[in-house]
């Protein structure tokens, strides 16, 4: 299991925290695997700073099959860690 620290914009952060958003779409620039934890750190692009908010989510499924997902990207199903 690996923990991946990732920036997330406030509107998406809120949706993850409330449970409405149960997936993450990311560039496949890390070796994501089922069972890994995403440490999503709220980042405000207006101030260009972290807000201090964070949440952990476990990766439960990975989908990166082309042509459904663009090359170099991955969709991960996530749930509370």
Automatic annotation (TrEMBL):
Pfam families found in the cross-reference section: DUF3850
SUPFAM superfamilies: PUA domain-like (SSF88697)
Stretches assigned to the DUF3850 domain: 3-78
Domain of life (superkingdom): Bacteria
Name this protein carries in UniProt: DUF3850 domain-containing protein
Organism, as annotated: Paenibacillus antibioticophila
């Amino acid at each position: 299991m690996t923990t991946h620290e990732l920036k997330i914009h406030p509107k998406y952060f809120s949706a993850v925290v409330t449970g409405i958003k149960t997936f993450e779409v990311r560039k496949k620039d890390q070796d994501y695997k089922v069972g890994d934890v995403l440490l999503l750190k709220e980042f405000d692009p207006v101030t260009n700073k972290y807000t201090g908010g964070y949440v952990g989510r476990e990766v439960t499924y990975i989908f990166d099959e082309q042509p459904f997902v663009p090359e170099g990207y991955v969709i991960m199903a996530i749930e509370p860690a």
